[in-house]
Amino acid sequence: MNFSRKNIKRQQCEAVVGAQCGSAVLRGAHVYTPGIVSASSFMKAGDVISVYSDIKGKCKKGAREFDGTKIFLGNGISTLSRKEIFSGLPRLRGIGIRMTEPIYLSPSFDNVLPSYLFLQNLPSAVVTHVLNPQPGEKILDLCAAPGGKTTHIAALMHDQGEVIALDKIANKVEKIKQNALLLGLNSIKAFCFDGTKALKLDEIEDTEGTPPFSPESFDRILLDAPCSGMGQRPNMACTWTLKEVTSYQPLQRKLFPVAVQLLKPGGTLVYSTCTVTLEENEEQVAWALSTFPCLQLQPQEPQIGGEGMMGAGLSGEQLRQLQRFDPSTTPLRDTDLETLRDARAEDMIRLANKDCIGFFIAKFLKWKSTSEKDPQK
Question: What are the binding positions for S-adenosyl-L-methionine in this chain (predicted)?
């Protein structure tokens, strides 16, 4: 939860960072050297400098000043001189500016009890509780990287059972394995594999728990689908195109039949995204219910977010069974620390819901076996 700091004195010495780096600073990070795009010509190590984000990507690497559109992020202390930053030496990849007066009081949790804590947004933690994994079960996280929800699933199961994590990008799979190792979770098996191909379509013998998998192999499945990511915040640059946004619904509809067929009768399927579009959320739920008669929409526990959005043809009862986190629908008023000290638990939940990322959750029960007919045909 972020609290804005006002009246920070801006310094004559300036540095400009890229939009991605700027978003990380707003979340509590320091500025790492590769993220610095521009720095004042007289900047040296130990200087107090003002940090700005180039949200349109117009600043040239190595510029001495930048007069384009930029957002103030706060003040920090440079650990390097301008000459060192732009020397091109590959070893300079550590912290370039240590933030001392960020505009938001959002503390960094990097290296804070790393084997005990894993930082997550509120909805990301809620979705795993909605899945409700139980010890001894076989769980599939179909699009798992970087592994926050995967490790949460294993923790809720007390590391008893089997958690299969799939992602088609190799370095992201390695990140899942690293997180599992760091947290001491032995029930997780991560594979570099395309989730759309995770269903075994022939009678080849099982290959010791590696993908692809036979139909009805899993007790619960989390489909945290690739999406347009419009709920991610803070975000310093809006670079989505219509083509990019509309490309996700077909991909989600390729993953969904795989998840349904891999799920055992009586099993739970949770579909989630970190976006706020109707097309990727409520429309997908309506499509799934009409395409797969074996699925029934279920109420969720805990229910912290709001209900679903109208416009996809779902009933009022169905909308109430969905969970949508959308901070844009309820503006967050200025809040100070004194107010929070006297807040009730319900008020804190309401405040957290307003100040979190945009997110969507739907929970399904597979009440009967999937038809042998391919639902995609």
Answer: 143-149, 167, 194, 224
